[in-house]
Hints:
Layout: E1 2-5, E2 14-25, H1 35-41, E3 50-56, H2 63-76, E4 82-85, E5 96-109, H3 118-129, E6 138-145, E7 153-159, H4 165-183, H5 198-206, H6 213-223, E8 242-252, H7 254-266, H8 271-287, E9 291-298, E10 313-320, H9 325-338, H10 343-347, E11 360-366, E12 381-384, E13 388-389, E14 392-399, E15 402-410, H11 413-434, E16 450-451, E17 463-467
Parallel strand pairs: 1-12, 11-14, 16-17
Antiparallel strand pairs: 2-5, 2-6, 3-7, 3-12, 4-5, 6-7, 8-13, 8-15, 8-17, 9-10, 14-15
Amino acid sequence: MRLTTVTRMSLPAGVVHRFATHITPVQGEDTPPSFDQARHASLGPRAGSWMAVAFALPFPADRDRVARAWLAVVARHGTLRTVLEGGGKDDDDELRVRPVTVHPLGWREATAEQGEDPRAVLRRVFDEACCPFATPSHALCMVEPEDRDARPVVVIGLDHSHVDAWSLLVLLRDFCSCLDDLACGLEPGTCLTPVAAFAEHTRELAQRPPAPRRVHDRWASILAGGGMPVFPLDLGDISTPREEVVEVREVLDPDGLAALEREAAAGGVRMIALAMAEMTSVFRRRGGVGLRAVLPVHSRHHERWHDSVGWFITNSVIECTDPDPMACAVAVRDAVELGSHSLGPILEPHGGMPHTPGMFAISWLDHRRLPIDVDMSLDPQHVSAAIRTDGVMVWFVVNSSGLHVRCRYPDTAGARHSVGGWLDELCAGLVRRSVNGTGPRERGGGAGPRDPDRDRPATTPRRAIVRA
């Protein structure tokens, strides 16, 4: 799945149609949100709090069938039939997750200026429809191409409070299964087994035994400095959030990825440890410090949750002072333990998990390890919103086409220089590791000169930069 943003996603020229819905309350007990849902909602209504999955229709289908398939997906996943209420910046009521029924209103052509890029139209639709307190906070769109030979593209946007990256793959698979059922004359969802709702996971996590004392002490130590880890190099003036810069690097092709995996196995570690080791080395050379970053970890540890949709991610912290891969592997395990407990009771004495200007976060996602088979012929895309930011976020994405790195940072001269240069060195180091220290490969990766205009294939990797 291609990792992209709404400003640079691949879309045909055409008309954007949105499937409109409305909700009604249903009988049933409301539930408390998860720790991360509450933290997300506490920032209040805002644009850019969503993520989306986009893909071409697997076979010709009219809008009615597309809508029926989507409604079957909504009926399948409990979190898509809930809304967040209360707890906003201007709301004294306790934040709750309330059950609802989602009703169809029909297709509407999204408002657009003459000749307006469909990406701009989608951004506007999702910024309005997919925010924490929207009812519902998800929207189905379809881009119908001007070229009749091109396939329509389905785009499903959802506020982050109800989904994580893994969930996007589940939604894509379930939608295509429901669409296939309709084509076969079956009720949509016939071929899918029932799944547990995310609210059940929230309850289960809250009922687990208290975290051990060492976990409480470790979090207290992390927060003692007044906040979460920050990017240790110059970011310029971030006294207020800035427009984002997004860089996409195609680092390794499949051969280079296989070589890096062999290098990791030879050292008795996984690839993520090599990536952490390389980041640690670069920070030590450039800033005389080690790696200290927020590391999101997932909680789908039981197969019961593998096919569920929800936000099964929480933030942990990783610290690597030693660039040895074995030491970094230990640091990864420690970070996973920190994020494997209910964080509410742990962080409550510290006022919760703070948002720290300059915060530095790393995400690692290996699609090959997920128990979901995604048809790459659908040109699937994981689409992020465009936002203003004062921090640095790096995504490492591994799939059958290789290793890809995306980085978001504030648009300041200082950040462009320091973060861009850090990425150059990081990607070049990963390439060298893929050939066991023999220097950059001519094929499969490396950090070449800057190219602000477009993505490049992995055989001639370049920096692709976009300003939202």
